[in-house]
Amino acid sequence: MSHRRGSAGKAEYEERLSPLAEQWPNLRFLGLGAWWAWIWLCYNSVEIMRMFPPSSQTSLVLQMYLFSTLGIAASMFAAALGWKHVTPLVDRPSVVLGFGAFAGLATVLLGFSVVMGAGAFFVLAALFTGVGTSFLCLKVGRVYGSVSLGDSLTAGAMALLFAGLLYFVGIGIPPEWRLFFIAALPIVSALLLVAGAGDPFPSARSGAGEDVGRGALERRMYRKLVAASALVALTAGVGKGISSGLVANDVFAREGSLIVFCIGVIAVFIAFVVNRGDTVRGAPQVYSALMVLGVAMMLATCFGFPIAYLSVGKEALWLVFSCFMAYLAFRYDLSPVRVFGVGQGVYFLASTAGWAVGAAAAPYYGEAMVRMGVGIALAFLVILVLVYVFPETDLNRIMTWSADAECDAAPADGVGAASGLGMRGSRARATASSGMAAMTGEGAGETEAGSWSDSLARAADARFGLSSRELEILDLFAQGRSANWIADNLVISKNTVRSHLRSIYTKLDVHTRQELLDFLAG
User: Fold this and answer.
1) Cα–Cα distance, 164 to 37 (Å, whole number)
2) Model confidence at 400, in pLDDT bands (50, 70, 90)?
3) Range of the domain at 309
């Protein structure tokens, strides 16, 4: 009863917001941008510390960065451990708004901590900002884990541009209002993240339901993805730690503005490459290009290039890695809370560790040999990531691997691969024929069955790589059958059907049932 009431309440909420979701369906994705702007204004500028003496602003910003990111990492790990209990909270708008308000209040307290004597109060307020914003990060994973990779990368690029806009507004408004503007950003982020409808393929597995065994490929790819993002965060953290001990307030603020501007340019590049053609080709191109850019920037630091600008590559790659994690949750019907909890927790922890290493190396960075050694070592780590830890081939494998979660029998798959539709495809055509006959009459059913077969034959083209099981489910889903009906009819689990549907939507690059029908008709 309580589950039904919760589902009814969620449905009522989404129905009440349906006009907003219909007019601006991607509005919720901009919540990432507001949260990101908060991070930039707190970590890459001195605006939140304007009430402190100028001599201590930069050092306090970096201390705030240290304790805030530790708060985020700890909260993320805790959420990953209790994901079954946390996921229902992430899906409740009131809880998300509450954490956004909590983060905003902690930001105000952080800004006024000098009046309270700083010290322990400053540390506590910084930790609270991390705890509050970590919940927004979990909601970002939930939102971005409901769409395909192309959609999440495009939406993330737009969120980057939105974050840049908010950043420059924040540093441009009157000084007496800047702290309150920064404190309002987590609330704005929460409001945007809860706008619109939720996951179009909701399931118990991505919610608070049972946790089932994962395939070896999924586990291995996820571990490699987390390791790659951690190494990238570590390298950029080293750069941030070194620059924190070398630059003055005005230089720190100027570098932050240039970093945000460069990230906005990269966001346009990401959106262009991903939407230029096929996402299966575009996403690996974006990933490889950003990794090569990172290596070039690290080698350039050997010859005097400011090491602080490594944050440009780090922020852009954070978006890419986050979208990859969300895509794993989308494609294989994993828990976004668990995926993001572990992945982002490791990322922020590695960034903090890198900052500590860089701060320790800062006094010696003025020597040419030390500077060259640091640049080469960081470049080597990124090359290691690109070549061994998480190469482009791994990303291609994730994007093209069939979502046959039930591991159907090999002989049947072999027949299906050889014949295009195989035995299961024949059963699908028979089901389609009988279904259409029941709806439109026997003659019409035969005609429609033939048209569906032609459409399925086109969809089976090697460009899309649909498996025979996916073709079977595609046929039934296009007729209007629900995921539950398909599961009962084919005697497979509902989660398997949803996993196949996610794979079909990704491979065909469609996002709604109507787009799927238009594709088949085309």
Assistant:
1) 7
2) low
3) 2-197+217-400
